[in-house]
């Protein structure tokens, strides 16, 4: 069996496993089957990436050749994202077992089944070459995610899930309307075929409306300012494991899909030359970088602080896209990958604090560094990465973003990148100061260090932040190949 024949199993394995896990009793068995399914998907993605970097891989379902049939079509860009999603899911599950045992003490089978559905949906979005399948898999992952957020022990989790559902439904509807316009004008749903037919009709109002609907719909899923309002509460009140998983995967997949439509289906010469999309994205990106960082500096709830920080980090990714250069897209893909490592590590550390203290307010962290030194050190080191300190993964992606800005002589963007990175120092330092620079008040309980089942996965993510800050062969190589694909032939679409 060659790698092309294995590609569908990266989605099928978690999809089938979800039905099995939902019926399994106890705690250990559902977690073990879930972890095995996620690990299989990660292994298949790891095997696919080298081949997809060389040539675009296509798997037609039912031997119906595209564009008549549905296909999975994988190149360097979506292979990179698929590896990220499946790897983050596997690493999050290593941390999940202890946390989920406390937050979801009963009926863990349905909980893990929902997680597998969300994972299968995200991987399906990433790998499919069919525009309508993007919407179908988006709904699978979204519906599962809404239910996962509602599992939070805080009553506000239900309201957060409801708001997420409303906003997510609006975003999905906008995406579907955009796809419907494209189908109406081209008569096909295969994205490669759509890209070939679109130049004949792209000067019509329907095509311009399609692009607008798709950008708004995916911008909402991406939490691009000002379409980010669902994200802070969803991250804050979901179970800690759900927050860890979403922070490392969901917005990254949404960004990939946006790039796929902008660069492959519509082509850069239409999106950025005929239409002023670059200016729109740059304005929203800069606004997100500042607004997200600014609001994060004043948060007292740590999960909300990191959620607003994610809004700022999405701004960095979109800023790279708005430059419409190979260097800018490379920086965007790099930060897509590195931010997943950073935020997963930070939310693991915060979730570990919550597991031991039942609180993640900054005032309740006073003096905690002496009682939970391994946990708080992990948070501080991951915080260095989100600031962009040299030798960390965060530095690499920000450095490449600065180089991309210099390439287009946008020196003012260099200043903005540095300034917003300094704003990250403020909100990370507030946590470090509370944990290490103040004494533990007598009215706060004494806390012991967290169990190894939580610490080891957290430190593994911290170590990866420093490893990929020193050895960039995988990340820079894969991000450069992904950028070349987007600005080149993509899925067979027109080159710029």
Overall outline:
globular
Largest sheet: 2 strands, antiparallel
In the predicted model, the low-confidence regions spanning at least 5 consecutive residues are 489-496
> How many beta-strand elements?
2
Residue share in β-strands: under 5%
| First and last CA, distance | 36 Å
Based on the structure, what is the oligomeric state of the protein chains?
Answer: single chain
How are strands sequenced across the largest beta sheet?
Answer: 1-2
Number of helices: 21
Provide the succession of SSEs. Answer: HHHEEHHHHHHHHHHHHHHHHHH
Task: Please describe what this structure looks like.
This protein has 496 residues and is mostly helical. It has one domain. Helices cover 76% and strands 2% of the residues. The protein has 21 helices and two strands. A two-stranded antiparallel ribbon has the order 1-2. α4 runs parallel beside α15, α7 packs antiparallel against α9 and α10 packs across α14.
Compact description:
The chain has 496 residues and is mostly helical. Helices cover 76% and strands 2% of the residues.
Strand and helix layout:
Elements: H1 3-6, H2 9-21, H3 28-54, E1 57-60, E2 71-74, H4 76-103, H5 108-127, H6 131-150, H7 156-186, H8 191-197, H9 205-222, H10 231-237, H11 240-265, H12 268-274, H13 277-296, H14 302-322, H15 326-357, H16 368-371, H17 373-387, H18 393-407, H19 411-436, H20 452-470, H21 473-487
Antiparallel strand pairs: 1-2
